[in-house]
Amino acid sequence: MNKNWTFGRKLAFGFAVSSTFLVGIGVAAYWSIYMLVATATSVTHTQRVLEHVTGLLSQMKDAETGQRGFLLTGEPSYLEPFQAASAGATIVLAELRTLTADNPNQQARISQAEALTAAKFSELKRTIELRRAGRADEAIKIVLSGEGKKVMDTLRAVCEQISREERELLSKREAEADATASTAKMTILGGTALCLLFVIAAGFTITGSLTDRLGMAVGHVQSSSAELQAAATQQASGAREQANAMSEISTTISELGVTSRQIAESAQRVAQIAEQTALSARNGESTVEKGQESIAGIRRQTDLVVSHMLDLGRKSQEIGAVLDIVSELAEQTNILAINATIEASGAGEAGRRFAVVAEEIRKLADRVAGATKGIRIQIDDVRSAVNTTVMTTEGGAKAVDLGARQFADVALAFKQIADLVNTTTEAVREIELSTKQQATAADQVRIAVSDVAQATQETETSSTQTLQTASQLAGLSMDLRRLVHPQAV
User: Fold this and answer.
1) Cα–Cα distance measured from residue 59 to residue 93, given in angstroms and rounded to the nearest whole number
2) Would you give the end-to-end CA distance of the chain in angstroms?
3) What is the pLDDT of residues 211-263, one digit of tens each?
């Protein structure tokens, strides 16, 4: 490391080398993890192939079990394992072919397994068909011939070859995973150790260089800080007195400006409220006018209802007169029917039919008289209801007239309120304008004084900060001296 390098360059160099070590360790760790994941995926793939090979043999055993049960009993229910195995074996073989698509040797063995599986199922189906046809002896002969056993033995051998190669691949991949893990551990541990050694060496080197340079600078800082502290003390004392005086003046003018703005804001709010009140009064006046129009309409409708009710009363009286005539005719008809009955009874056998007709006429006259009485009662009820309605409607009309007069009074009051609110609004606006002018003048004075006060405060602040900086600088120089040369303190 060059001695003429600055402190920042030395730190940058140390961080750059440390970061390079860390990046190398990270890349090695990432590559190792990637290889472990790939190896784990391959191991899982191999295990799936082994599971499918075992599943194929299991399916074939189930098929043989179903076939033997059917040959012995003849019950179709024993064929369920055979049927399930027939469909399942095809699926397992297809998945095996997909899983070993990258291995030509395994593809060839799977082709053999497919042919053997087809031959076995053909033999099983042939014996099942013979048993269904009632030729059980022939089916058993085929089983005893050992043809199916040879096929199964060959299939087991092929499956064993497939499993053996997959187990070899599994062992190889597990060995690769172990080797990759070991390499990753060594790389990470070695890189970490080198990185720590370099950081420690760089730390010692940079610390020694920094100590020498700081020792020379501390002396200059101590002498300069003492001079600066004395000058800052005098400047801060004078600036503090001037700042206190200007602060009092600025505070007084600020309070005056705040009071003026509050008065202006209050006047503005009063003006807004007065305008809203005037608007509400005008709206109320419009609403009252609409109410008067609605009451006039109600009055017209009431008069029309009274007129219809009076017409209904007159018509009910006319109906009553007609009912009187009908009742009188019914009584006369009844009397004539009675006389006719008496005359018919005196006429003997010849007047009997006439007596029957007269009796029916009398009954009809009685019904007419009864109906007439019922109608008269209903007409009287209608007449009474009409009279009550007319009286009630007239009372409502009087109430409507009274409401109309009251609405007129309310409308007059709203007009007076609107006039008063307009006058108040104009007065408040004049107050608002005057107050705004006063607030503007106060703001101008306040701004001028505030500028002077701000300049004074800035001077005081600058002096105080200079004094604080000088004090801090003196303390810092002592601290640096303690750090660099503890025995010199």
Assistant:
1) 11
2) 32
3) 666 566 656 656 766 676 676 677 667 666 766 766 776 676 677 667 767 76
Q: Answer whether 139's CB lies under 8 Å from 107's CB.
A: no
Q: Identify the residue whose tokens are 């008063």.
A: 420
Asked if 87 contacts 133 with a C-beta cutoff of 8 angstroms, the reply is no
Residue 10's closest CA among 192, 194, 208, 217? 208
Q: DSSP character for 3?
A: T
Assign 197 to helix, strand or coil. Answer: helix
**For the stretch 290-311, what's the b/e string if a residue is b when 16 or more beta carbons lie within 10 angstroms of its beta carbon?**
ebbeebeebbeebeebbeebee
**Sequence-ordered list of residues with C-beta below 8 angstroms from that of 488, at least 6 positions apart, any chain:** 481
Extended beta strands in 212-307, E state: none
- Is this model's pTM higher than 0.70 or not? no
Query: Is 313:387 a contact under the CB 8 Å cutoff?
Result: yes
Confirm if 168 and 159 have CB atoms less than 8 A apart.
no
DSSP-derived secondary structure letter, 429: H
**How far is Cα 290 from Cα 122, in angstroms, rounded to an integer?**
102
* Side chain identity at residue 459, one-letter code: T
What span, in angstroms and rounded, lies between the C-alpha atoms of 358 and 356? 5
Handedness of CA 456, 462, 465, 471 (dihedral sign): negative
Half-sphere exposure of 268 (CA within 13 A, CB side): 9
Query: Which two three-digit tokens encode residue 211?
Result: 């100590």
